[in-house]
């Protein structure tokens, strides 16, 4: 075995290295009767000129191939250094590249040695920080470890047919009024998933999202509320694909970070990547015939086309003369298949092709890609518990004073200070309270997850403080709803007022769930997501436009501030209330006719919408 010395020479955050791609740390062979220190002294005379410096010898010997390597660290941070050899360079240790595992092991061992000797310097700290970052980068595993396979050829061809059907129907439906066409597309996508991928993981939450997406799609055939018709274009795909994901992979848990990462990787990234498999599948399936047979097939195909074209022309002419209805449809074939011109046809073809590729890529990925492991990351607990307790105490004191004032003046109607009126006090500050409730909810969750708790006693104190702030925040949510109710009783309902009220109610429910998270360490993401979806579906089906019109009409005789024109801007869902208001003389013909003109004229069965079709009945 050959004895050698490896030199780690640092000046500040820069490390001395050999100017080459690998084996970058200087290694010097020790001569007979030479100590490691004398070896380094000899080498530095010829290669690098240094002044006074701190020298640390590492006792550990590293065995690499035929070498026994000793390690010597020289800290030149406080001295001048001059390189005498062009093969040597100084590099910032934070950006060092191409170090091998042995060299990284030496650096790690050196950092530990300096720690044991209690030697601290800017150079050592820089090296430790750089090594930690480099090591984390190089050893970092992907968040989701996948095993990619290939779909069965027959199943892939079946998927092409189903994807083509969905793409073709979508290209027809999307340029017309969205009615029962939406649940048809969603049913086809669900059917394609079940046929091609199958239910591999019987996840209750997966079924919940799948059913929720279909229930929401049905609203396009019933209601006309523009707000939800736009929002559902986002919510339905997310809910549908979430269901697909959970029903496919048992290793994907419904937790915020891991689920969102899995959704982005397996639904978006994999779907896009697998779209390239479609042309390859077609080539492998139909392009595997040898060239001689191909030429023979092509000859007969061309011959058949030459015979077919004149034959079809003659047949169409004879059939058109024999039947006037057939002639009518033949003459108006573009209108019949709902294509206006060649440009319209090209756009529809592009859309159909795009969706076909996406549907193919999505189902191909879910069918052939396996999740080996999800590497869940632990949240770094960077907050000191003593600091957090100090901040929470001050916040609690402020909130207690705020709550005392609210209870006294808002709920118990205590006499207000001079210059204040109850109506003005009660109606103002609603949106600020809602914002504060939301901020408190997010902040408590974040602080609890990131606070470093040393013992159970500190944990109990923190949980009590979290619970107090949560209860005080719950009172703020209640006060916000109370204030909005007072405002509505004076000025009436609008969509925004109802939606913000419902959002506040959702925040209050989330605060109650937060108490379970605080006390029993329960995961919040699943119950909050389920609650949000249930509330959202409820909003879609309770017909808020009809409710707004009905309640505002009741207030019109009592409050002159009610905006009658606003009722004419509501969707056709408000038919029952506006028809009743017109009948009773509350809604004028002018506003009623303005509202009725929102009706959409439809031509095709798949545009059917109950409210749109029955508004004049």
Keywords:
Nucleoside Triphosphate Pyrophosphohydrolase; two-stranded antiparallel sheet; DUF4173 domain-containing protein; 64% helix; 617 residues
Outline of the structure:
This protein is α+β, with helices and mostly antiparallel strands and 617 residues long. The protein has helices spanning 36-47, 101-116, 122-139, 153-173, 181-196, 204-218, 226-248, 256-274, 277-286, 291-322, 324-331, 333-336, 342-368, 385-411, 422-427, 430-450, 456-491, 495-520, 525-541, 544-556, 564-568, 575-583, 589-596, 610-614, and strands spanning 2-11, 14-18, 27-29, 48-50, 54-64, 67-75, 81-83, 88-92, 144-148, 369-374, 383-384, 451-452.
Number of strands: 12
- The shape, in one word, is flat
Tally of helical runs: 24
Distance between the termini: 100 Å
Overall mean pLDDT stands at 83
Strand content: 5-15%
Protein name: DUF4173 domain-containing protein
Pfam families: DUF4153
Transmembrane segments: 156-174, 180-197, 204-223, 229-249, 300-322, 342-362, 383-402, 430-449, 461-482, 498-517
InterPro entries: DUF4153 (IPR025291)
Describe the structure in your own words:
- It comes from Clostridium gallinarum.
- This is DUF4173 domain-containing protein.
- The chain crosses the membrane at residues 156-174, 180-197, 204-223, 229-249, 300-322, 342-362, 383-402, 430-449, 461-482, 498-517.
- There is one protein chain.
- By secondary structure, the chain is an alpha+beta fold.
- 64% of the residues lie in helices and 10% in strands.
- The protein folds into 4 domains: 2-139, Nucleoside Triphosphate Pyrophosphohydrolase (Alpha-Beta Complex); 149-289 and 310-374, no CATH class; 383-542, no CATH class; 564-617, no CATH class.
- It contains 24 helices and 12 strands.
- The strands form 4 sheets. Strands 1, 2, 3, 5, 6 and 8 form a 6-stranded mixed β-sheet that branches. Strands 4-7 form a two-stranded antiparallel ribbon.
- Helix 6 packs antiparallel against helix 7 (226-248) and helix 6 packs parallel to helix 19.
